[in-house]
Amino acid sequence: MSLISVIVVLIVTEQAISKQTEDILEQKAVTANVLASRFQLRIADATSALEIAARSEEFASADSLDAVSEQYKGLPIGYEEEKRKIAKDVLEEYDSFETFAFALPNGDIYFVEPHDRQLSLPRLNYADRDWHRMPIATGQPFAADALISTATDHRVIPIGIPVYADESLVGVVVGAMDLENLESQLRSELNLSDNNRVVYVDDKGNAIEDLSGTSSDTYTSIASLAHLQSVKKVIGGEAGHLIESIDSNDILTVYRPTTIDGRNWGVLVMQPVSDAFSTIEFLRNQAYTMLAILIGISAASGYFLISFRINSTLAKELAKANAILIEKERMKDDFLKLASHELRTPIQPILGYSSLGMRGLVNDDRAWHVVHKEAQRLMKLANNIVDITMIQSGMMSYEMTDIKIVDIVQSSVDGIRTAAEERHLTLDLSVDAKCQEIAVHVDASRLKRVFDEILENAIKFTSKGGIRVECKPSQESQEFLVRFSDTGTAIAPEMLPRIFDIFASKSVNDPTTQGAGLGLFICQAIVRAHQGTIVVQNISDGTGVVFEVRLPISSQYRSKKIDAQAN
User: Which of 447, 450, 477 is nearest to 552 (CA)?
Assistant: First the structure.
């Protein structure tokens, strides 16, 4: 083997390793960005809920000041029932809150819901707390740093909203965001295997959330991580990554700041270097092993033949890799065009109608239906982007249970029926009698999303005729088949082999429809996570498309069937 061939092998190997390293860091960076943005949105959403309550007429006055007492740590039960009802409604509607309270301008608690949390308070006055002091000082909502609630001994983020009536301060509405509830939501969204760890810090460097696959949180203390270099950088407003020693282990940390009321909080995605870059070490070891083998073969078989084959193989591999990169770049360009259109399209009517509505110029309910519909479209695009991130970073989680798949299919069909009727399309569901008792081991919500996506696409690309859905077991009864067929637009032959690729969309070739090319990629990832398959083909005469989803039948059902046959 020539020296040039050895050098080429080493260069190609290191380029592959460099690209893999970039991909790993990019995936973690995207995950951190998404988590930071979603945390900011959670705070904003919670703040909006409290602001709506604070602006209600019921909070424009405090009429029972004489009944406030140290004994009850505020008002006794039976007073200000209308305010308490609003507080209960907020707690019921937004389960992010642990408590809802109203404090007077002097810092005394007026009331707390639930009432038993009020009675457990250690004191009446909280004028020294930032959630009371800052909203009064600034006249603006304020999300205070995490603290241990004196009512529940849990870790919470208090959000204070100043309440004014005729420019006079009436008090401060405060909601305590339950961080245990936040962790539960995050654990349902994230896959924390392979020693992945996600940490949220406030502007003081305190860990308000610390999630991993092995640790559990008692929520009765707040740990400071201000000594970590990554935390210093993120609360300083920096974004980036570094490797630092934590508890004698080298940890890769990707960090992203998120702005909360003008202060830098942050999200850190952490993983031991040995786990984060395990695939890279595997690549390097494989390459060097192959190099050693090739050198041995060269010595035994002759210099020219092996050198020619290696160079030929490398040239082919490089050409193949280059073609893949070019295709990915083209698909990304298509996606950017589609995504920009998908973003602008719903935003324009939302901004237009909401602007008119704020001035009292919209009295037609149809306008608000448009706003709601476009907001749903925008939310779907945001959810798709989040799920793409979770899938590519390996952090998508699944809550698997045994369930009758017919129930999931029926729910998806029922959900799309109105849209089919609006387009004058037929929608038929055919269920084999054997399917009624068949169970599958799946995440029902994610599998429903697969069926919803296929049906929504069928509606979108079908202008006349209809959609038919069939459910039946395979002849061997080891798989459950769900077939979706429509009479719509066929998929272009050149698009068919890559219809499940990310950014691939029929919309690129059909400007009358919309789509960012993310849905079917997500569908395939979900089905594969269930050890199933999803395939698509055009109907032979070009009158539509057929999607087939196959899922393994639950082992419990198969064992019951075997027992029944034996008896």
Answer: 477
Whether 201 and 234 have beta carbons less than 8 Å apart is answered as: yes
Tell me the residue range of the domain where 121 lies.
55-175
The residues facing 401 across adjacent strands are 442
**Each residue of 444-476: pLDDT tens digit?**
989 999 999 999 999 988 989 999 999 988 766
pLDDT digits (tens, 9 = 90+) for 173-191: 999 998 887 777 777 767 6
Instruction: Tell me how far apart the alpha carbons of residues 337 and 254 are, in angstroms, rounded to a whole number.
Output: 29
Do 107 and 123 meet the contact criterion of CB atoms below 8 Å apart? no
Query: Residue 269 and residue 211: Cα distance in Å, rounded?
Result: 10
CA distance 434 to 505: 36
Together in a domain, 67 and 190: no
- Are 165 and 190 within one domain? no
Is 24 a member of any domain?
no
Residues of the chain whose pLDDT is less than 50?
A: 1, 301-308, 310, 314, 507-513, 557-567
The single-letter DSSP state of residue 380 is H
State the pTM of this model.
Answer: 0.57
Domain count, the chain: 3
Q: Which residues pair with 177 in a beta bridge?
A: 97, 157
What is the C-alpha separation between 301 and 310, in angstroms, rounded?
A: 13
Q: CA quadruple 283, 284, 285, 286: dihedral positive or negative?
A: positive
- CB of 480 within 8 A of CB of 558? no
What SS3 class is residue 34?
A: helix
Is 426 a member of any domain? yes
